[in-house]
Amino acid sequence: MFRRYLLLAVLLFLSGTAFAEEKVSPNVDEKNITKLEEVVVTATRTEKEAASAPGNVKVVTQKDIRKRNVATVDSALNTLPGVFNRRQSLSDTQSAVVLRGIPDQKRTLILKDGVILNNGYDGSVSFTGLSTENVEKIEVVQGPFSSLYGGNAMGGVVNIITKMPEKREFTAIGGYGSSWHRGESLDDLQKYYVSYGDKLCDKFHILFDYGYKSTNGFSKYPNVASKQPNAGITGWSYTTDNIGTPRYLIGDKGDNTWWDDNIGLRVQHDFSNVTKLNASFAKTRYKYNYDEPHTYLRDASGNPVYSYTGVKESSFVSYTGSGAKEINRYNVNFETEIGIVKTKLSFGLSDEVKNWYTQAGTHISGGTGGTVSSTPNQNYNADIQFTYPLFSKNILTFGGSFKQNTANTEKSKLSEWKNEDSAIELTNNYGGKDMTYAVFVQDEILILDNLTAYIGFRNDWWETKDGYANQFGTGAFTATYNSRSDSSFSPKLAIVYKPFDNTTLRTSAGQAFRGPTVYELFGTYVSGSTTYSGNPDLNPETVRSWDAGVTQGLWKGAKFSATYFENYMKDLIYTTTISSTEKKYMNVGKAESKGVMLEIEQRFDKYVRLFANYAYTDARVKENTANPLSVDQRLTQMPDTMINMGGELELGPLFASLTGRYVSKRYSKDDNTDTADNVYGSFDSFFTADAKVSYKVTKFATVSFSVDNITDESYYSSYKAPGRSWYTQVEFRF
Question: Which H or E element spans position 643?
Fold first, then answer.
């Protein structure tokens, strides 16, 4: 506590010093400032004005991020239409960004500077630890993009583009916040960030940064019992499970504490105006844990009660235990021009050297035993691209790529479930690798001055290797799997037509795929009396999609856009009940999602911006032999309605923002029987509003204060979602 207040006092002192040294800047004639069109690269792999790009492209800039209280990169996307981010708090390890009604993070491709972040185990992405402060912008392209990027791009692509300094700069940020009412949100949230960037000898750029976050958390996992407490015990309350079966709330499983940090180094050398080489390294670490549980029960004398008939004290132990990750990411990018041909090469490695979690289990030798599951994994990828102006009306982009995912899981018994290093017996291991080789071609054809067509395709050759699974002790088995291969052809056609200066019409159609993950292929293990089997014979999932949209400028500072889309998914991978003792991954599903996205924005010069967007998605299962009761039900974890709205005000050194977000109810069961609301395990509809006020004290120093969930909305997202919280921050940029 003392160190936190000392740091804030130092920051405020520096703020006063900077104020004393500030010089008055010369006035700038705003009439002479030309506003440049936003340029994006993700939609076509080449630089293209966003207004002319095929597909629905949205951009979140560093300035946009600083306007709101954005603590994680994925949360920066929360106000975009058609984007659903599952994260409810900083401590949520199950965060996922999904687009256009195509569920799960593994079906949305996440890139950082063009290099894949989806991991080599299950296709998920660890957004925790990615610094928002060194992001230049985030480009989001919705729709199938396997024709350019291959697997995982069924719903679209999110490309996180980091900044490279053009001059000497130094940034220092410190902040502290907590729940409005102690225990109802993230208590004692601390965030610190420092960076140094420079451009040396007019050729060499360097950026070093370090960030840290921690919180004492809050009690998000309740202890819900199926047996009513005995007579004479007080403090419990009546509730239900998510399908309405009576339950009894008797306590919680402890505050979810958590920390992460990240360190990064990025360098770039400009050999010439067209030839550049940059390389980067980033290390991310995070760990979560749970403090001692709390019982709400009291006996007649007021003493705490942890057990009664039918309920053991062990029920208060958090089933999820603790967990941690450590990820090293390496990127190398090179670009040049050879004559009129632009060439880009990139190499990337995402190495999760640590990825483990513990679970409570049986009582062993006087301590509470449990299990630990550890899955180090790697994702290697390389890409080469050429862009060649063909004749006077064509731009040809072509190239190839390689990707390899490797993962190995070990599960062991622990003598003490709170100590991940107390392993006493290996119970199970499995793993393997998959490799993908691909070629792609895209032709940008200028049919008329205001009419452009994009025709492209990609062919991916996919192969699995070195698959194995072993169970030791009860239910022991040993299995090795033969290599197998498959291929996928992904075409796409898009047309962009600008009949008037303020009108853009777009339509596109394409096919995308996702190869099964290492976990789905080889993740075989025994739990209790049931064997959960991977399936090395799985086929890739595919989706065929089309969309049509319009962007229309209205009056000064106003624009409107509308998009309609349809997705037809097949060969979806589900867990299938083979027998009373075995469940197995199978290609047994078909699904459809159809929807509309509407967006309107009004700007009043640079001072005020108002916006609102609406997305409706009807995403339903159409075939599922694993569970016929799920047919015509909504896809899990997909809200049908999302609404975002907000306003921003900028007056000299003062900046203020207010945003609201509505998300309709979701289901966790594929038959949609989890209809109960506001109980543990339910996924409720919610509306939250967030606000932030910033004041530039000096040219170099800014202070801010923000409040999240202003209305203190109470809802569950499986666990109890955070209530109202506040956060204050001081930042210096020199």
Answer: strand 641-651
Closest Cα to residue 531, out of 473, 475, 468?
475
Task: State the burial class of residue 719 (Cβ atoms within 10 Å of its Cβ: 0-12, 13-18, 19+).
Answer: buried
With 0-12 / 13-18 / 19 or more C-beta atoms within 10 angstroms meaning exposed / middle / buried, residue 583 is middle
Question: Please, is 171 exposed, middle or buried when counting C-beta atoms within 10 Å of its C-beta (0-12, 13-18, 19+)?
Answer: middle
Q: Report the DSSP pairing between strands 530-533 and 582-604.
A: parallel
Q: Name the residue among 403, 402, 406 with its Cα closest to residue 352.
A: 406
Answer for the pair 543, 154: CB distance below 8 angstroms, yes or no.
yes
What are the start-end ranges of the E strands in 122-186? 135-142, 156-162, 169-179
In three-state secondary structure terms, 369 is strand
Torsion of CA 167, 170, 171, 172, to 10 degrees: 180
Cα–Cα distance list, 238 to 219, 224, 247, 313 (Å): 19, 9, 6, 19
* CA within 13 Å, CB half, 322: 18
CA distance 36 to 56: 19
Do residues 670 and 621 make contact, with C-beta atoms less than 8 angstroms apart? yes
Model confidence, pTM: 0.90
Task: Output the DSSP codes for 215-271.
Answer: E-B---SEEEESSPPPTT-BS-EEEE-TTS-EEEEEEE---EEEEEEEEEEEEEEES
Question: In this structure, is the dihedral angle defined by the CA atoms of residues 308, 310, 314 and 318, taken in order, positive or negative?
Answer: negative
433-447 residue pLDDT tens: 999 999 999 999 999
Under DSSP, is residue 379 helix (H, G, I), strand (E, B) or coil? strand
Cβ atoms within 10 Å of 263's Cβ, excluding its own: 16
- 3 state SS for 598-624: EEEEEEECCCEEEEEEEEEEEEEEEEE
CB 255, CB 216: distance < 8 Å:
yes
Residue found under tokens 């449990």: 370
Q: Residues 120-168: pLDDT tens digits? A: 899 999 887 788 998 999 999 998 888 889 888 999 999 999 989 999 9
Cβ contacts of 626 within 8 Å, gap of 6 or more: 574, 575, 576, 577, 586, 588, 589
What is the rounded CA–CA span in Å between residue 476 and residue 562? 56
Letter string b/e over residues 238-253, b meaning 16 or more CB atoms within 10 A of that residue's CB: ebbbbeeeebbbbbbb
Closest CA to 520 of 564, 576, 568: 576
Q: Provide the 3-class DSSP secondary structure of residue 673.
A: coil
Could you tell me if 497 and 505 are in contact, meaning their C-beta atoms sit under 8 angstroms apart? yes
Write down the mean pLDDT value for the chain.
89
Distance CA(371)–CA(430), nearest Å, equals 16
Q: Tokens 């981010």: give the residue.
A: 85
**Mean pLDDT confidence for 629-646:** 94
- The closest alpha carbon to 467, from 491, 489, 484, belongs to 484
What residue type is assigned to position 596 of the chain? V
pLDDT at site 396: 95
Handedness of CA 663, 665, 669, 671 (dihedral sign): negative
Instruction: For the chain, give the number of residues.
Output: 734
Cα separation of the two ends of the chain: 28
The pLDDT of 696-725, averaged and rounded, is 94
What are the tens digits of pLDDT across the range 4-38? 433 333 333 333 433 333 343 444 444 443 345 68
Query: In which band, very low, low, confident or very high, does the pLDDT at 1 lie, cut at 50, 70 and 90?
Result: very low
For the record, the structure tokens of 146 come out as: 């396997």
Element (H, E) at 696: strand 686-696
Nearest to 188 by CA among 130, 257, 286, 287: 257
